[in-house]
Amino acid sequence: MTQHSVLGTQHSTWVGQPFPRIEDRALLTGLGQYVDDLTLPGITHAAYLRSPHAHARIVRIDTAAAEALPGVCAVMTGEYVARNANPQRMRIKAAGSPNVYALAHDKVRYVGHPVAAVAAVDRATAEDALDLIEVEYETLPPLVVAADAMAPGAPLVFDEIGTNVLWHDTFVYGGVDEAFARADQIVRERIDIQRYSSTPLETFGSMAQYDPSNGAYTIWGHTQMPGQELGGISRALRVSAGQVRFIVPRMGGAFGNKLRPLNLISLALLARKAGRPVKFIEDRREALALSQSADMQVDVEAAITNDGEILALRIRGIVNEGAGLDFALRHNVLMLANTVNCYRVPAVSYEGYSVVSNRPPIVANRGIGKPVMCLAIERTVDAIAHTTGLDRAEVRFRNFIQPDQFPYETPSGNLYDSGDYPALLRKALEIIDYDGALEKQREGRSQGRLLGIGIAAGVEPGISNAGHNALIGESKITGAGEAARIRMEMDGTVTVYTGGLEAGQGHATALAQVVADQLGLHPDQVRVPLTFDSGTHPYVMTSGNYSNKFHGEDVAAAIGAAQKIRDRLLNRASSQLDAAAVDIELRDGRAVVRGVPDRSVAIAELAASAYGSLAPDQAEIDEPGLEVVHVHTDPMAIRMDANRRVKIQLSFPSAAHVALVEVDPDTYETKVLRYVIVHDCGREINPMIVDGQIHGSVVHGIAAALLEEFVYDAEGQLLSGSFMDYLKPTSADVPMIEGDRLATLSPFTPLGTKSVGEGAAVVAPAAIASAVENALEPLGIRIGALPITPSRLWTLASEGGARYGHADN
Amino acid sequence: MSADVDWGVDVKRSVTMTVNGTQHTADVEPRLNLVDFLRIDLGLTGTHIGCEHGVCGACTVLLEGEPIRSCLFFAIQADGTTITTIEALAVDDQLHPIQEAFHENHGLQCGFCTPGMVLAALAFLEDNPSPSEREIRVALAGNLCMCTGYVNIVKSVQAAAAALAGKAGT
Ligand code: FES
Ligand code: FES
After folding, report:
1. Span A468-521, pLDDT tens digits
2. Candidate CATH numbers 3.40.50.10230, 3.50.50.60, 3.30.365.10, 3.30.1330.30; the one for domain A295-401+408-466+641-804
3. Which ipTM score applies to this complex?
4. Where do the domains of chain B lie, and which CATH numbers do they carry?
5. Which chain A residues have a beta carbon less than 8 Å from that of B154?
6. What residues have CB less than 8 Å from A696, skipping those under 6 apart?
7. Whose alpha carbon is nearest atom 3 of ligand 1?
8. Topology annotation, domain A2-32+481-633
9. How many CA atoms within 13 Å lie on the side-chain side of A584?
């Protein structure tokens, strides 16, 4: 990709540079220190006995034989958990709020539901012990698809809430009915999306230790929200948050999948019961069974004019949440954040259903509901082109929010920061040579080749405003922000601690660049410890690595803290250089009087005096020590208004994707020939890292469209539970990713940055669906569901062409 | 089942192997995987476990110079062999040219696939020192990366090939 094309000169030294990552060296030499690489004296290893049934009552559990096996240190069941821990509650008080424990104790609600846990001297012995536990189940009818769970009289997944519809609401913004009444035409699309996952290569893991002398726990484990996790864990374990030291080692990928607090709670209880530290690393079978996005159905009705202008949208989303609460209701809310995508749609309504079922609880996979909403809107736009006879790109150009309309407020209250959507699509079409591609397609078709051009455009909403919780219920958590602590050491180097976490995004490098600029240092002089430790790192409830918030919240928090350090240094420099603080700048490791380069003092010298000079006259100049905390609160993250309008997300990067595919007319295998993305994430702190994020994200999206699916049978059994049948893309399956960037700066973040990382996975499935449908135009096949597999296309083609969707739900 | 059932696993067997130039002898259960032997018994945690069923390649090590999946190998199968893991690649704090190429080309993000990827690339480039893009993609198709979309991994291997060729030429 080329360098910034719109962005002007940057008034910074390090921000904007493709600075090589400071994370790499340890990772390249095998010194990553992921959670499974850690150990403790006396460590034991856990294994979980999991339900083979999707829905059953537990009649009896006999653990005597397992407990007697040599090498077993503890066996724990749901009954122990219910006695010694509080149930998990939904983060948001919504209508139905069932109690969920870290182990099943009355019923099992999905295949893989943990029923008992064993700690033993090694993993193999722990697994041997699982074979000795006897469980008697009374099976109940499984509810696998949302439609069955919603049917009147369906058996209940959670008896205590009396319904399987956890939440249902309708939001209307603007004159939707009026628009439909005056529309020339109405276009309807139904989209079904499968359960899939970005499957971090490192599975979920944790290690826990209990200290009976003070009742305190130390937990090393995965999370993406350390503040909320600490709150939830300590509440569940019935201790103060100060009695849990929570350490989050560097993660081998996360993608939203590593937010599963029940694992941490059960392991902590097991460590307490065993009286020894215990470690649990999920195996791949467990990871695939327990880290899935929601399967969803979205219906869109678009009121349009004959010119292809969209007047209003009516959207209905049904989310199959599975049988848990970790991320319940979130898909719906985030779909609501994305209803108009990048289009000027004045009126929109959204009706959402959150349905519990006997599939595993969903996790927050990369994009959480945004990919399906983008897919639904982009499929609708293609359908509008189909209906009106306009070119697919042309319909988009006619409906795009225009560059002079920013900041642009959407009907539901999101405030789009900046963008030039027409320029993005124009550029993407230019790179792919759209007219040339259409010509080649015509030629190819005459020779029986199925060539397709896919077009998709989208905003990629990022940074959750917890104020959106008000849409679904009561919550004490509001706003958005992050905490940072910076200590300038006595040698003038700095250490930066934040509540963010590292899972591969290069946050340490980016923060080093940002902080180096603020303090006139070299990034090598900035250390960013990658292991979060609640004993050293500051945090708030919105802390963590999620919703692409790093560029805004984490960076702003680090800048705020660095500026406090800078002010303190300037106090000292001012006294030493006999100049006003405002006349002094920090650069190249020195405090320099502006315009008088020979009046300067080394930052290291100022730092040394901050630590060493404690005489009262020195303390008057500045307080001793050089350590500050700054909590950034995002000024945009305001509460919901009286009309239920709220900024659900705060950052709106955008992109246009164009894909060229070829479908094999014999096997119906789809090959991606070229993939172009032109994106806008505002100012880039490190363009090399941004490129890497985009490549990975695009490939996640391509794979979701063509390969990946957690397939369930009618009994709720997972049929694709290994990497042999849950297909991940390999290097041989995907092309090089081409493209460019056209940056427009966000007016709402300190550096003009916007989110990056999640985004390409939001838009890519839509581009692939568009391309495959376009390739199959001669066969009359329409695409209304993912993944688009050869066997499904083959079946449709042999039936003479039809619409590919899920008829059954 | 009763607790005194005979699992047949406590009959340990002696194995000897040379790992990264050091000879190790240990008594191991026959069911112990090579990857667990390397990680737990020898403390070489640079070799990672991503699937334990032979698909992801995270556990790749070199056995007599050839890449193998150490999750599909029992430790006792490796008796008498010579093994290289990621820990042996950098010499005297100097990264191997392939490691250097991954660093310069941003060929890693979370780093979990990286040790396996680097070792697979090392063995591949020995067989094919000047590969095409397609050959690299096919050669590395047994190593999954969930982060990079493979773009910069392919570029890293291309750069490593060039660097190694340059080195060989001097
Ligand atoms: S862990 Fe060995 S191939 Fe995946
Ligand atoms: S860098 Fe994360 S799996 Fe490859």
Report:
1. 989 988 788 899 999 999 999 999 999 999 999 999 999 999 999 999 999 999
2. 3.30.365.10
3. 0.96
4. 13-88 (3.10.20.30), 97-164 (1.10.150.120)
5. 731, 736
6. B109, B146, B147, B148, B149
7. B54
8. Aldehyde Oxidoreductase; domain 4 (3.30.365)
9. 28
Find chain A residues with C-beta within 8 A of B120's C-beta: none
Which chain A residue shows the shortest CA-CA distance from B135? A732
CATH superfamily of A35-140+198-290: Aldehyde oxidase/xanthine dehydrogenase, a/b hammerhead (3.90.1170.50)
Contacts of A634 (CB under 8 A, 6+ apart): A463, A465, A479, A480, A481, A552, A553, A556, A650
| CA–CA distance, B128 with B135 (Å, rounded to integer) | 9
Question: What span, in angstroms and rounded, lies between the C-alpha atoms of A701 and A707?
Answer: 10
Peptide bond into A787 cis (omega under 30): yes
A585 forms beta bridges with A592
d(CA A564, CA A558): 10
**pLDDT by residue (tens digit) across A398-456?**
999 999 999 999 999 999 999 999 999 999 999 999 999 999 999 999 999 999 999 99
Q: Between residues 108 and 137 of chain A, which touch chain B (CB distance below 8 Å)?
A: 124, 128, 131-132
CA-CA distance, A692 to A482, in Å (whole number)? Answer: 24
Q: How many residues does chain B have?
A: 170
- Work out how many CB contacts closer than 8 A connect A with B: 185
Q: Which residue of A has its CA nearest to B99?
A: A28
CB contact under 8 A, B51 and A68: no
Closest CA to A231 of A208, A206, A261, A209: A261
Task: Summarize the confidence of residues A646-661 as an average pLDDT.
Answer: 98
Backbone angles phi and psi of A773, in degrees to 5: -60, -40
| DSSP H or E segment with residue A591 | strand A590-593
Give chain A positions within 8 Å (CB) of B150. Answer: 695, 699, 730-731, 734
- Split at pLDDT 50, 70, 90, the class of A616 is confident
pLDDT band at A558 (very low <50, low <70, confident <90, very high): very high
φ, ψ dihedrals at B67, nearest 5°: -70, 135
Same fold, A2-32+481-633 and A295-401+408-466+641-804: yes
Residue A598 near residue A577, CB atoms below 8 Å: no
Spell out the domain ranges in chain A: 2-32+481-633, 35-140+198-290, 295-401+408-466+641-804
Asked whether the beta carbons of residue A202 and residue B48 sit closer than 8 angstroms, the reply is yes
Percentage of chain A lying above the pLDDT 90 cut: 91
pLDDT band at B11 (very low <50, low <70, confident <90, very high): confident
Kindly identify which residue of chain A lies nearest to residue B44, measuring between CA atoms.
Answer: A30
Show Cβ contacts of residue A801 under 8 Å, excluding neighbours closer than 6 positions: A776, A779, A780, A781
Residue with tokens 């009359």: A780
Tell me if B56 and A723 make a contact (CB, 8 A cut-off): yes
Q: Give the residues surrounding ligand 1 with Cβ less than 6 Å away.
A: B 49-52, 54-59, 69, 71
Is a pLDDT exceeding 70 seen at residue A9?
no
pLDDT of res. A11: 47
Q: What number does the ligand 2 atom closest to the CA of A504 have?
A: 2
Which residues partner with A481 through β-bridges? Answer: A633
pLDDT at B8: 55
- In this prediction, residue A92 carries a pLDDT of 62
Q: For residue A1, what pLDDT is reported?
A: 34
